[in-house]
Each structure stands twice: as C-alpha cells, then as structure tokens.
Amino acid sequence: MYISVRDRPARSRGAARATSARLAPTVLLLGTVSLLTDVSSESVNAVLPIYLTSVLGLGALAYGFIDGIYQGATALVRILAGWLADRSDRPKWVAVVGYGVSALSRAALLPAHGFAAITSVITLDRLGKGVRTAPRDALIASSTPAHSLGRAFGVHRAMDTAGALIGPLLAFWILLMLPSNYHGVFIVSFAFAIVGFAVLVLFVPDLRTRAARQDDQQPAAIEPASAPSLRLLLDPRLLRLCAGATLLGLLTVGDGFLYLQLTERDSLATKYFPLLYAGSNISYLVLAVPLGRLADRIGRVPVFLGGHLALLGSYLAAGGVLPGAWATLTCLALLGSYYAATDGVLAAIAGQLVPALRASAIATAQTVVSLARFAASIGFGLAWTLLGRSDALHLFTGLLMLAIPVAVWVLPRTRRQVVPAGSAQ
Fold this sequence. Notes:
Blueprint: H1 13-19, H2 25-45, H3 48-55, H4 60-72, H5 78-88, H6 91-108, H7 115-142, H8 149-177, H9 182-203, H10 209-215, H11 236-249, H12 255-266, H13 273-298, H14 300-319, H15 325-353, H16 358-387, H17 389-410
Helix pairs in contact: 2-8, 2-9, 4-7, 4-16, 5-6, 5-7, 5-16, 6-7, 6-9, 7-16, 8-9, 8-13, 8-15, 11-16, 11-17, 13-14, 13-15, 14-15, 14-17, 15-16, 16-17
C-alpha cells in the first residue's frame, strides 16, 4: 500500500497552503489504532491499582514497583525501536511488532495472579508500547508539514484519549453489571487490542520516512538519507531537552497513586475507581487539540512547562485538607491538562530538533522520561510506606515546585514554526 500525495510534506508554499487545512489520512488512521488500543489498555489500567492492592493484597511499595515497570519498561526498547525504524525505513512494521506484543499481553493477564506473574505481564505490555511509540510518532511527523506538527499530534492524542476515556467507562460498566469480575475486563480488553492491531496491519500505509526527511524544511544539517548517524542524537538542544524532561519526570507521581490518594481521602467505593481515570481523560480529550495548536503558535517548550504547572496544581488538589467532589474534579482536570500539554508536545519538540533522525530523537526523549517515571514510582511507593500517603505527596509537591524553575533554565529554546498564509489552524 502506497502513501497518497496528501501524506507527503509539501514541496512548495502553494502545496503547503493546499494541504495544511486537512490532516493526513495516516494521522487519522493511526489515531483510530490508538483509540482502539487505548480502550484495551486503559480498561485494564483503570482497575489495576484496586485489583493489585485490594484483590491480590499488594502493599504500596510492591504496587510502586509494578507502577514503575508500567512507566519505565518501555525505556528498554524505545531507542532500539526508533533506530530500527530509521535504519529500515519501515516504521509501520516496527510498530506492528509492538502492537502485537501488547495485544498478546492482554490474554496473558487471565492466568496471572502472583506478584512475579503480574510483573512479567505488565513488562511484556510495556515493552510492546516501547517498540510501537516512536515509529508511530515518526509516521505522524513524516506525513505532516513542520508548521502543523503540534496540531497533528494534538489530534492524534485526542483520538488516543477518546479511547482512554472509553476504556475506564467500559471497565466501570462491566464491574457494575458483574461485580468483581476483573477477568471479564481482561477478556474485553483483549478483543479491542486485536481489532486495533488489524486496523494497523490492513489500513495504515507503509510510509517511507526517509524521503519525507529530505523534504523537511528544517535548518539542521541532514546527513545522507541512506545512513543517518546516531551522532545526531548528541545535538546539544536534544540533550538539554532530555535533561529537563528527566528532572521533571523524577517528580511525576503515577496516576494510580493519585487516584488511590483520592479514594482513601474521600472514602470512595472501589466500584467508582475507574471513573477517576475517565475524569482526567475527559480533560485530556478536550484540551489535546487546543494545546497542540497553542504549542505551534507560541512555542512548544512554554506549553510543556505549563503542563507541569498543571501537574503541580493536581498534587495540591489531591493533597489538600479539603476533601470533596470539587477538590477531586479539580485534581482530575489539572491532571488531564498536564498530559494534553506534554505528551504529544514532547514528541513534537524532539522531532523538530533532530529531523534527520526523527524516530530515534523521539524515542530518546521518551526513554529518559520513562526511566525517570520508573524511579519516581518506586520512590513515591517508598515514601508512601515510610511517611504515609499525605506526607509523601507533600514531599513530591515541594520538590516539583523547586524543579520547575530549574527546568525553565535547562530546557532548550526552540523557534516558533511559521504557519503559511491561508492555512487552517
């Protein structure tokens, strides 16, 4: 299957005006794949903290380790997958492997009960995510003009988050109809994963990104298309991005911990736990495209930093002394805002900095964030065990307050993309 001319970056100003008003079909197809896959993954993720702590009886430190695996196992393969996508010039098929591995992990949840078995299954799922993410994002970036990257990633993340919203609601409905039937959630999750995998294999174009890199209107020096050098990943601006993102990632408390804090603070029934995931995903869904467009207009680094200010606000709302619905809703809205302002935006920044090795650059940035979040989950689980849930959250809140000004100084300065006249933003 070959990519249509609408999927290629425009070769002229006139072509840019003609194509910028619409998204490339590749972006929408990958958004559909991500939507279905996130229905699968988030239906499981929405019940996993309660399943592990209440059903399997794991403590905060054990859950912190598993949550760390969930956050950080992708780091083991992200850079390798990005390099394979760049080297082979076949990012779709690298992504296919990742989506396939994650789909198989859904079925493997059914017989898994002990700590070791659950950890192995979660690791398998996250390895699949690590393999698929950078090649998928490279496909999005290569089929989109540079001035619309934030918008394209925003639309993709909005579709991705629509699935992340449907997943928890689906899990809530299953548990409402069949109380404590967590295996029912796992079976439905596997079905959605298979459908998403089929859409990727059958309908997403096998886009060659090497030709797209030659059309990229970036000032950076591009090495011969046949063999891009990994030395490009030593670009000082990419290193600064990784350093700043690592600092902030080390202080990113996992969603499950925040939701457990809200559940215990407000004495919520466990059957409502999946709705907390749905609440933050509604905020993410609503804001993903507007914040992507804002990043294109005012700069991606300021929006990325603004997302971490929203994360700080979610900590304050979750750790506040005033319980109740408004505090919970504020926490969920700010947490969703954080993801909308950082997830796709980080990929857009990395892809902008090193366009000649785009998949590897995106994978590098995502890898350091994954490793940082792995450490953060274990650290927060340990702090919860030693200090208690509220004091642990207060500690991370204070440290994040100190880290954000440092990140402002560390993160690179990137140029705002010039939008061609007459384009639709």
